[in-house]
Every structure is written in structure tokens, then in C-alpha cells.
Amino acid sequence: MGAFTKSVRVCGIAVLGFGLTFGTAALAAPAVASEPSAVSQTTRSGSVIEVTSDLSPTEDTAFDLAGVVHGVDVDEIVIGLGLPDHGTATVPVAADGSFAYTFEDGLAAGRHTIDLAVEGAVQDESRSRSVLLEVRDADGIVPLPDDRFTPVEVRSEATYQRGERLTVQGVATPGAEVTITGWSAGVYGEEVRADERDGRWSWTSSNTMFDATQLFTFAQEHETGSDSAPIEFAAVAEEALTPLEVESEATYVRGKRLTVEGVATPGAEITIAGWGAGVYGEKVTADEQSGRWSWTSSNTMYDATQLFTFSQEHRLGSASESIEFRAVTDAAFSPYTAKA
After folding, report:
1. Same-domain pairing of 79 and 130
2. Signal peptide: which range, if any (predicted)?
3. Residues in contact with 149: Cβ distance below 8 Å, sequence separation at least 6, in sequence order
4. Which of 55, 115, 194, 211 has the fewest CB atoms within 10 Å distance of its CB?
């Protein structure tokens, strides 16, 4: 065991008196090699059958295919087991709609299509569905035969953070060259190569993303064929730039250092300049959570007034505010009085 085994759809099943027909239209997932996801496949749109178990078992290892039938009162579910030598199985459905079937000997590494249906599937398509088992080999890989063309597929979320580079991961035919183009993003045919074994590929853009949306085309070339997948990516919603604010009183005591506190965009860099006070671009960073910041001047203050500019820089934008500070009398200061 351990070699890839091609799945076979089971058609024209007649079990317990209800004729069940499994067509190819129910199978929407493309045959693509990848490192499998541990996430279960939930109910397809309009289907009463939900599969809740893990669909990426390990080869030759017993596992359960479990799920729930929603909204219909049935006693049994028919499972087409994806291989000629496995045929079909009729599995009881509990009062709460749950069911489970155990593959006692497991399956060979590769992709296997499993068809499921309950009574009335011929008349009502919502009573049938198909799921794809991605059976891993000992290395955790779902293998494909060398001569099989695999459609290019993007598996990353189609989103990006403004001001950052875009990283995309996916699968294609093992060994294929994948070319990425996104004209408005300044991406003019950057290339990566799909892994020779499992077809996985990863690409990081040479440019940072700024627009609200970007259309990218992922095209693969291989001796077994070529195809492409255009996908529109969108910038994720972000909070707007927080206005820079100085919360301290705009005063200082002559002969002492000036301490100023305020708020800005979390993580922003705050630059303080006050030329008359000898402050030439001193910097602090706003707290990553609250945006609060505090600055103490490197020099002591002497003049009657000092103009300071507080500027913030952040990937969301920049802003500045100029404030004039004035000297106040220190309450602890007492003028010298000569005795007569």
C-alpha cells in the first residue's frame, strides 16, 4: 500500500428498495495534490447531509467517516466507498440524524471520492452529496501520479494587508512553472515552480499592496497541459489612522525637562521637533494596543515659549500637530529678597 489509488464514482446504486444514482455533478472539488487540511467538509449548499469527521486520514489506518443528516426522517444512509473493491455500505442513521462508517483497513494514499445519499436522492438532489478524502502517506503528503495534470489552485485567502507584500500559496501540477501577473499591482510575470512531489507552491510579491482590490492571474505551464486562474484579492478592512493628540498641558517649568503624553495610532512612530528648544527629531513609539505615548525632552526648557511639532508615521498614513508651549512659574521657586 502507499501508492496512489484512483477513485471511482459509484453509479446506479439500488439499495433497500430505493434507486440511488450518483452523478458527476455533485463533485465540485478539483483533483489537486496537496498537503491535506485537517478541517472537515461541512454541508454543501442545499444538501441535507453534513460530514463532520476529519477528511485527511493516514494511509492504511482505520478511520471513521461520520456526519449528520439534517431535516429529513430517514433510517439509513448509503455510502459509495469510492473503489470497486469496496462497493457500497448501508449505514444506520440514529434518531438525532448522526451516522458513522468505519474504514477498518484504511485506504491507500491519494484522493478518494466518497458518495453519500439517503432515501429519495433520485427525486431530490439535496439528499445526496460527495466528499473528497485526502489520504496522507507516511510523510503527510497526498501523492499524485507523475503524468496527471492538476489544475492550478490558490489556497490562500484572497486578501492582503495594505502596505505589506502579498504571499500566496497553492497547488499545481508537480514540477509546473507558475507565473503570476497583476498589472495594477506592478507584478509583471513573476515565476515560481510547483514542488516536484506534491505540487505545492508559494509566492511573495516583489511589491507592497496599496489599492482596495487587485486582480491577479496564476498561470501554469507543464508538459501535460496548461491553465490559469484569475482571482481578485481585496485589502482587509482596517481601522482608520488615529489622529495624533497631545493630552498634556502645553506648559513647562523653566530649567526643567519637558514631559509630554498623548495618543496616536497604535504602533505609530512619533517624532518630536522643537528647533528653538534644541529638539531635533526625537522619537518614541505609540503603544501597540492603546496607542498611548510619552516623551521627555533631552534638554531643559528656558525660553518664555517653545513651538513643538509632533508627527506620527504609520503604514495607514501620517499626521502631525504643532503646539506652542509656554513657561510657567515653579510654585517651589521663591524670589531672593535682600534683608535691610
Report:
1. yes
2. 1-28
3. 173, 222, 224, 225
4. 211
Q: Residue 56 in contact with residue 37, Cβ under 8 Å?
A: yes
Distances (CA, A) of 28 to 45, 49, 94, 128, 132: 12, 16, 28, 13, 9
**Residues paired with 13 in a beta bridge:** 20
Sign for the CA dihedral angle at 270, 276, 277, 281 comes to positive
Instruction: Provide φ and ψ at 158, rounded to 5°.
Output: -85, 55
Question: What are the tens digits of pLDDT across the range 94-151?
Answer: 999 999 999 998 888 888 889 999 987 777 888 899 898 989 998 888 876 656 788 9
Assign 252 a pLDDT band (cuts: 50, 70, 90).
very high
142 falls within a domain: no
Closest CA relative to residue 71, chosen from 92, 43, 40, 100? 43
- Bridge partners (DSSP) of residue 232 are 215
* Residues 288 and 307: beta-carbon distance below 8 Å: no
pLDDT at 301: 94
Distance CA 96, CA 69 (A): 8
Cell triple for residue 126?
439535496
- pLDDT of 197-210, one tens digit each? 888 999 999 999 98
Residue 228 lies in a domain: yes
Domain that holds residue 91: 13-135
User: Which of 257, 260, 285, 258 minimizes the C-alpha distance to 271?
Assistant: 285
Query: Looking at the predicted structure, is the pLDDT value of residue 18 above 50?
Result: no
Q: Is residue 30 part of a domain?
A: yes
- Residue 259 shares a structural domain with residue 231: no
Q: Which residues contact 250 (CB under 8 A, 6 or more apart)?
A: 323, 324, 325, 326
Select from 212, 235, 258 the last residue of a domain.
Answer: 235
The C-alpha cell that represents 78 in the structure block: 448509503
**pLDDT digit string, tens, across residues 125-137:** 888 998 989 899 9
- Here the cell at position 240 is 482608520
C-alpha 175, offset from chain centre: 25
Grid coordinates representing 128? 445526496
Q: Is the dihedral of CA 261, 266, 268, 269 positive or negative?
A: positive
